[in-house]
Design brief:
With 302 residues, the chain is α/β, with parallel strands linked by helices. Helix content is 37%, strand content 12%. Bound molecules: 3-methyl-2-oxobutanoic acid.
C-alpha cells in the first residue's frame, strides 16, 4: 500500500506544484473504488443530504448521519485522507459544541480532519478545534449551508468589495490554523489571488484551474443524474446510462425466464431425496461436505 495521505502530504503537494485530487464519498464501496483510483482526499460531504437522501438542501443533515457515513467511508479508504463535513448547526452555536462534534467525527467516524463553512466569524471556532488536535479544512465562497443568506446557490465574490472580504476571510482562517481551504463558486481570478496569498492549499469546485486542487461530488463526475448539469460539473462517465442499461437487461432476463440459468444456480448434493414435504424454515441450509460455496452476500468478498 502506498503511504497514507496526511495534511502534511497536502501541504507538500502545494509546495511542489502538484495538484490535489479530492472527491466526495458516502459509503465504503465508493470509498474503496475512489481510493484505489488515486484520490488524495475523500470528503464525506454534507452534500449527502441531496445526493443520498434526496433533500432540497444540505440543511437537514444531522451529526449522527455524518458520523455514520464517515465511519463507512473510513473503512473503505486505505490511502486517501478522509475529511468529515460538519453539518449545519453542529459548529455555529459555540466553539465548545463545535469541538465536541468535531471530536465525534474523529473518534466515531474515524476521519483525519473536519471541514466547516464560513469566514473570519468562525476563526475562534477553527482555533478551538485545532487546539483539540483536530485539523480543520475551511470552506469559502458559495457555502451551501448559507443558502438562505445568499438567496440561492449563486457565485460569490464577483465584485471588488466581496472579493476583498473573501481574501480577508481566507487569511483569517489560515491564521486560525486551517490546513486547507475549499473555494466553491468563486471567479477564477479571485481563486488565483487567494491561492497565491495562502501557504495552505486551496481546493476548488467551480473556482477555476488556479487552485491547488479540485473537488467534485462523485455522483456528479460519474454522471448519475442527467437532470443536474451546472456549469462547473464535467461528467467523466455516464453511470446513469450504464446502470439503467444493466437494470433493464436484468429485468428483461427475469421476465423472459433466462435468468438465473444453470451457471447461476445451485445443485443438490447427490443422494438427497425429499420423501415428505419439508416445512419451509429460514436458514434451513445445512452444510454438506463437498457442497458448493455460496460466496459473499451483497458483494462482500469471502
Ligand atoms: O458537501 C460537499 O460535498 C462539499 C463539496 C462540494 C466541497 O462541501
Amino acid at each position: 500500500m502506498k503511504d497514507k495521505v496526511t495534511i502534511h502530504t497536502l501541504k507538500r503537494l502545494k509546495q511542489s506544484g502538484q495538484k490535489i485530487c479530492m472527491v466526495t464519498a458516502y459509503d465504503a464501496t465508493f470509498a474503496r473504488i475512489l481510493d484505489e483510483g488515486g484520490a488524495d482526499v475523500l470528503l464525506v460531504g454534507d452534500s449527502l443530504g441531496m445526493v443520498i437522501q434526496g433533500q432540497d438542501s444540505t440543511l437537514p443533515v444531522t451529526m449522527d448521519q455524518m458520523v455514520y457515513h464517515s465511519a463507512a467511508v473510513s473503512r473503505g479508504a486505505k490511502r486517501a485522507h478522509v475529511v468529515g463535513d460538519m453539518p449545519f448547526m453542529s459548529y455555529q452555536v459555540s466553539p465548545q459544541e463545535a469541538v465536541r462534534n468535531a471530536g465525534r467525527l474523529v473518534s466515531e467516524g474515524n476521519v483525519g480532519s473536519v471541514k466547516l463553512e464560513g469566514g473570519a466569524e468562525f476563526a475562534d471556532t477553527v482555533r478551538a478545534i485545532v487546539r483539540a488536535s483536530i485539523p480543520v479544512m475551511g470552506h469559502l465562497g458559495l457555502t451551501p449551508q448559507s443558502v438562505h443568506k445568499m438567496g440561492g446557490y449563486v457565485v460569490q465574490g464577483r465584485d471588488e468589495d466581496a472579493a476583498r472580504r473573501m481574501l480577508d476571510d481566507a487569511l483569517a482562517l489560515e491564521a486560525a490554523g486551517a490546513y486547507a481551504m475549499v473555494l466553491e463558486g468563486v471567479p477564477l481570478e479571485l481563486a488565483r489571488t487567494i491561492t497565491q496569498s495562502l501557504k495552505i492549499p486551496t481546493i476548488g469546485i467551480g473556482a477555476g484551474k488556479h487552485c491547488d486542487g479540485q473537488v467534485l461530488v462523485c455522483y456528479d463526475l460519474l454522471g448519475m443524474n442527467p437532470d443536474f448539469k451546472p456549469k462547473f460539473v464535467k461528467r467523466f462517465a455516464n453511470l446513469h446510462g450504464n446502470i439503467t442499461e444493466a437494470a433493464n437487461t436484468f429485468f428483461d432476463e427475469v421476465r423472459a425466464g433466462t435468468f438465473p440459468d444453470e451457471d447461476h444456480s445451485f445443485k443438490a448434493t447427490k443422494g438427497i431425496r425429499l420423501v415428505t414435504p419439508t416445512p419451509v424454515v429460514p436458514d434451513a441450509e445445512v452444510a454438506v461436505e463437498g457442497a458448493e460455496k455460496v460466496g459473499g452476500i451483497y458483494g462482500a468478498p469471502v
